[in-house]
Amino acid sequence: MTSTTQPSWARRNKWGLILLLPALVLALLAASSRVQLFWWSADIHHPISGTQGEPLLLSETVQSPEGTYKRSVELTVQGVGPGQAPTSSTGQLTDTPAGAKWLSIALHIKADPKAPINVCRVALRDADGRRTDYDPTMLGIGTLPVSPCVPEDHPGPTGISKEEQSKAEIAGPRPAEYDIDVPMLVAEDFKADQVLFWLSPPTYLEISLR
Amino acid sequence: MSRRTRTTRAITAVTALAVFGLGQLLTAHLPDEMTSLRPFQTKGRIGESVDVRTGTVRVQTVNGGTSLSSPIAGMRTSHLWVVIAYTFTPSRATTGLSSLEIAAPNGMRWSGTESRNQNSCTTSVPGLPIQCQAAIEVPAEYIVGAHAELAPNAFQRQYDAVAVIDLAITPDVVAKWKATPEISTQGSTLGAS
């Protein structure tokens, strides 16, 4: 008479149990891909941090209908101080809304004159995390320059196509480096703590003010 | 069949029945899709500030009349124009409030963006109010007891915050509006009132 000892439940199902953990991780990853697909690239999430006065480089590869290209901007935030109400394209002084004030961000920008960087976005963040964006339409079209980071008279190209590049050449090339002041409308109690700058989200420059 | 095998089978059967029972219980008691997709509604009244996730909204005045004078055009109606003046103050980011609807007690709804209706509310920065106005054409016979629903996003109200504001429309108010020949609306204005 032979006595056989049956293996325990855990032993019989050991492969199932071992694979359970990676299966769970895979299921979570598969579900979280929606975050990457729909939300991650829709706003700024990946900071490159720096400090006022120090140059910071933002480089990215852009996929456009005209092809894939690289663009880079070297940005130095020189300071943020009280600003004045800007003059609109028609020469009129912009009214400052009640409860608001103007700040001015002094930027120094270095970029290839042929690089389309007019899509840039600028924002200020305070210590509480409140983010005030540069919005050229907020006070009506024509009140503020469309792009906060290129000279209005020589904005450079808006794309890499031959047509856009030649249009920019006719207007005159954008300088390879220049200073520019960005007027920012903020609430009266807003105290800027950081300057944010980006071309295409999710990567952005996050410059702490001194 | 050994005693051990019988015990194992019995435990398996009981466990299977328990799992089926638990599934049945969960199906019966968990919210259905319509319930889980519903917005987070906060009720309020005219003059009250209500949080809508991206900021606070306050309906200031509600008026009505039979023709509308706006910066875009003058428009007569055989029904009523209802003009809702409201203030939106962003809390964390530069944004606006893009959805305003009037809902009648019988379930009928009228949006600020459909047909000839207007809802001009651009964006503002955190802490700075924006004065907005919406003009909505509604049939007079249905709007007694109606409320307004204001939400941050016009296209995606599921899971999001919605302010539900009682517009205090009574039969007397409707009668008064029917006798008002013209009401006017202006575009949005940035800044505190």
Secondary structure: elements and pairs:
The complex is a heterodimer of chains A (210) and B (193).
Chain A: H1 9-12, H2 14-39, E1 46-51, E2 56-64, E3 67-82, E4 100-110, E5 121-126, E6 131-133, H3 162-171, E7 177-187, E8 192-198, E9 203-208
Parallel strand pairs in A: 1-9
Antiparallel strand pairs in A: 2-3, 3-4, 4-7, 5-6, 5-8, 8-9
Chain B: H1 3-29, H2 33-36, E1 40-45, E2 49-51, E3 55-69, E4 74-90, E5 99-103, E6 109-111, E7 118-120, E8 130-138, E9 147-151, E10 161-166, H3 171-178, E11 183-184, E12 189-190
Parallel strand pairs in B: 1-10, 3-11
Antiparallel strand pairs in B: 2-3, 3-4, 4-8, 5-6, 5-9, 7-8, 8-12, 9-10
Task: Report what the structure shows.
The complex is a heterodimer of chains A (210) and B (193). In chain A, the strands form two sheets. In chain A, strands 1-9-8-5-6 form a five-stranded mixed β-sheet, with no helix packed on it. Chain A has helices spanning 9-12, 14-39, 162-171; strands at 46-51, 56-64, 67-82, 100-110, 121-126, 131-133, 177-187, 192-198, 203-208. With 210 residues, chain A is an alpha+beta fold. Helix content of chain A is 19%, strand content 36%. Chain A has three helices and nine strands. Chain A folds into two domains: 9-40; 44-208, Immunoglobulin-like (Sandwich), CATH 2.60.40. By secondary structure, chain B is α+β, with helices and mostly antiparallel strands. Chain B has two domains: 3-30; 39-190, Sandwich (Immunoglobulin-like), CATH 2.60.40. Helices cover 20% and strands 39% of the residues of chain B. Chain B is built from three helices and twelve strands, in the order ααββββββββββαββ. In chain B, the strands form two sheets. In chain B, strands 2, 3, 4, 7, 8, 11 and 12 form a seven-stranded mixed β-sheet that branches. Chain B has a five-stranded mixed β-sheet with strand order 1-10-9-5-6, with no helix packed on it. The longest helix of chain B is centred in the N-terminal third of the chain and has 27 residues, at 3-29. The A-B interface holds A 97-100, 123, 129-133, 135, 137-139, 185-190 and B 91-94, 122-129, 189-193.
